[in-house]
Amino acid sequence: MLRINEIRKDFPILDQEVFGRRLVYLDNAATMQMPEPVLQSIVRHYRNDNANVHRGIHALSERSTRALEGARERVRTYINARSSDEIVFTSGTTASLNMSASAMVDTFRPGSAVLTTMMEHHANFVPWQQACKRSGHTFLAIPLDKNGDLDLRAFEALLSENDVALVAVTHVSNVLGTVNPISRITELAHKHNALVVVDAAQSIRHEIVDVQAMDCDFLAFSGHKMGAPTGIGVLYGKLELLEKLEPVQFGGEMVDEVRVAGSTFASPPLCFEPGTPNYVGAIGLAAAMDYLEALGLADIQSRERQLVRYAEDVLEEIPGLHVIGSPVTRAGCVSFAVDGVHPFDLATMVDKIGIALRSGNQCAQPLLYEAYGIGNITRMSPAFYNTYDEIDVAVSALKRVIDLLRSSSIRSQ
Ligand code: PLP
User: Fold this and answer.
1) What's the CA-to-centroid distance between 174 and ligand 1, angstroms?
2) What pTM did the predictor assign?
3) Which of 94, 207, 209 to mutate to test the pocket of ligand 1 (most atoms within 8 A of CB)?
């Protein structure tokens, strides 16, 4: 059981007023707030141990390097990778997915296809689309069923009808909250000789991410979605696959020998980390993982599922409000459209009474424009530290603003 009142003391940012109203922060799918122990781990490192890593043999550099490599090992245990050599530090999910697409596309069989899905964030859609465009591979997207779950029959058909080299799929949708059955997806993909890349940007906090249980080949996530700083992320890859990839960015620390005649490169993961890595970010990421594990990942998962279910129930009571999708399992967020009300007006006006929601296309235009044909939406995304009372406050603010916007639009007609 999570002791929410105690936990909230770790997040002083939540305890503030905006525009004279108590802040209700329900935009955690965009970024989660950082708990004090993570902040302290960063301050402690800068105050006591800071020096560039891997480059020096002096005491501070060795301490910094140990802390970075300790963080790599921490990530390994958190996602249950086999080896810390499978953990590449990047600046975030977007960087991890771009790096995978650039490095992997050259390894695909001629004439093969990349399959992504209609619910992807642009970060797991556009890099593959662009890589396919450059290399002449086919780019396809798995459709959804009417509830917002992946259509697994259509997926199997696409696997049978095409020579699929790779499936790029999100674990949890950042709009629908759909939790995809990754183990089933990897099983089907592997039967057809296709690799699987998982976007775990959302699931890294809501789900228990176990790369061996999922048997995914690559997985990407960002620290800031789990209480770590911005600018740090991870690309996990099975070691035997990372070893086959050529680096796509070059510079210091990722090389073995550099001569005029040519260069050779370090082994993974260092060959994918050119330049000074964000070692303090990695230390903060490890501290965030310690923090979440100490609270209990299963408890966090169950609390967030309950909050999302509650939010969905109370939002649906608002006349003219339509929750988008009803997937078998929803985690992390509820998105909605309101008849006759523009999402930007809604989010802007509730902001003035202290409620932080997100409106827009959530970087998921194929989903919102092509699959659902609705365009922009509003999203509420609670984290474990939110309360039922905060959701009630947000819903009553939404009701008032919706009434106001509707009555002003009637008056102006
Ligand atoms: N994928 C999903 C599902 C996301 O929700 C996000 C961010 O919202 C991203 C990728 C991109 O993450 P970042 O901006 O941290 O690179």
Assistant:
1) 8
2) 0.97
3) 94
